[in-house]
Amino acid sequence: MNPYLVGVLAPLVFSLMFRNAKNGKKRGLPVVVGGDPGIALRNYRFLAPVETAWEGISTLAALFEQSCKLYPDKKLLGTRKLISREMEVSEDGRSLEKLHLGNYEWQTYAQAFQAVCNFSSGLVQLGHQKEERVAIFADTRAEWFIALQGCFRRNITVVTIYSSLGEEALSYSLNETEVTTVICGRKELKKLIDISGQLDSVKHVIYMDDDGISSEVALAEMNTQWKLTSVAEVEKMGEENPSDADLPASTDIAVIMYTSGSTGMPKGVMMNHGNVLSTVCAVMTIVPGLGSKDVYLAYLPLAHVLELAAENIVVAVGGSIGYGSPLTLTDTSNKIKWGTKGDAPQLGPTVMAAVPAILDRVRDGVRKKVDAKGGLAKKLFDFAFARVLLAMNGSWFGAWGLEKFLWNFLVFRKIKAILGGHVRFLLSGGAPLSGDTQRFINICLGAPIGQGYGLTETCAGGTFSEYDDTSVGRVGAPLPCSFIKLIDWPEGGYLTTDSPMPRGEIVVGGPNVTVGYFKNEEKTNEVYKVDERGMRWFYTGDIGRFHSDGCLEIVDRKKDIVKLQHGEYVSLGKVEAALSVCPYVVNIMLHADPFHSYCVALVVVSQPTLEDWAAKNGVTFTDFSDLCQKEEAVKEVQGSLIKTGKKARLEKFEIPARIKLLPNAWTPESGLVTAALKLKREVIRKEFSEELSKLYAS
């Protein structure tokens, strides 16, 4: 059949399928669009993608100024007071830094706006020119957001760089964008000094006033030609010498966001103000009751589009942002001094964003505590969990209101307190969230999880599951800023004519689709296309399928599919997501080789879980590394993975036939995962090439 005829008929056929569907609410509706033939959906409430929610507001700078005028006395940016830093020695002899943190200290919208104006004017006094670029290379904090908005008021493009980026990628990003001013924190300044000889264009370094940073400043002044200034000094210069704003237009580039580079060197994604604003306006319509009473806990990297969009959404509605970090999030986090409250219990957020890896950790932490208590406490938890799960799955209702109150009071109240006790909505993005984790968090925190799908190239916009959608494993319907289209990928066997659901490569169109890759026209032309109607589309490389209610499910990724020796296809990401719920797994990378008929895996093991098993089964060991080498331990974890795989209905060839247990965590600092905690497959393969070879040789 003519492919263009398919492109016209497919939406009509899909529309009929919708009309006959029996599962209620339609969240995504068919729409006829241009470009490659396929099946396209839109948000059920909007005929066309939204660009802005306010007349006259077309940039992030204008949005910020509007909110500061509407909510001048409302708390905006909160930072915890640092009381002391202390060093503790762990049982294995490692020195660990512990922080004693106090209450949150707040800046109002009016105070934050003044700080932004001062910083903006200070950049002028510093000699930074409008056409030059600024890089922000620091952990998430209030100064990061103020610096960003300060740059926007001068129409300066900001280059965002993960604080965990390695030296080679860091120098590449700064040189490619010809950055002249870098804004950084203490540990980032040390990294900059180490590569100062490799940086071609940097003239100014603005450092955030960290305790004890003076030695790094002195070292930098001694070894570089940079002009070093603190954020406070820049703001003071601006306060004494105010300059008029030079506000951007919607089409001006706001951010060049460097991806964390899961393969090769990072790519700089160019986002204009209109791109980000459209995502902000779209998500605002999805989160229930979002408003000025909401408190948001900011701890994910602001160099990640998910966090950048989330903070601007909170500002748009007049909410409050309290800053924290993954290492101080809860009372038991690694860097929290014993007896000190974590960020979440101290702040009491109502809304949070999270990546699946962090939610998996919360689930595992709760599960381990419950299992450790045992006895009546464990039985009560398991019974309460089962009752709530029955109700959520629709197989039991009963006097649900009263019983829900009972279980929340008796069982789940203490678990909710881990994140402050007031969380009413969680946004998950960055990677697929397992159904088990989603249900666990739903039940234990009593809050819906809005699982979203988007990419840096689409400003995090794509799809989003609504609060009343209790299904798991899906990523929702199209956001109001996007059209979502599936196109055939015959080579992989995914077609829009597939039954019972159309499948294909996911293509995202709308005002949130970014401009392209910085200085990389070839790659831009490969994955970005403009159709005959002028709409811009991004070809994601992800494979999805549409459910009959118009929600999207991610089922594969082109790059993750490997064909085994006997012709079976293995989707690495799909299998890893299924096996990640195994209680022994902290992280896992599946490896498939076309010259073999089976898979192998590298497994980062949960130390408490494996050591607990060893103690109960009389397995002796000298240290955790030794335990990971024990044949009995490998056999136990392998058996658990097989059980988990069968439960997830994986094929036999998808479950790893041989595994290697690894004792040390994969962190962004180790370079084995990105700042968003995604696997860097090629790096891991090279790092553990010998181990992988032995698995196939054994």
TrEMBL record:
Domain (AMP-dependent synthetase/ligase) ranges: 101-518
Alphabetical UniProt keywords: ATP-binding, Ligase, Nucleotide-binding
Cellular component, GO annotation: endoplasmic reticulum; membrane
Catalysis: reaction(s): a long-chain fatty acid + ATP + CoA = a long-chain fatty acyl-CoA + AMP + diphosphate
Transmembrane segments: none
Any GO MF annotation of the entry: ATP binding
Highest taxon listed in the record's lineage: Eukaryota
Family that this chain belongs to: Belongs to the ATP-dependent AMP-binding enzyme family.
PANTHER family on file: ACYL-COA SYNTHETASE LONG-CHAIN, ISOFORM J, LONG-CHAIN-FATTY-ACID--COA LIGASE
Protein name per the record: AMP-dependent synthetase/ligase domain-containing protein
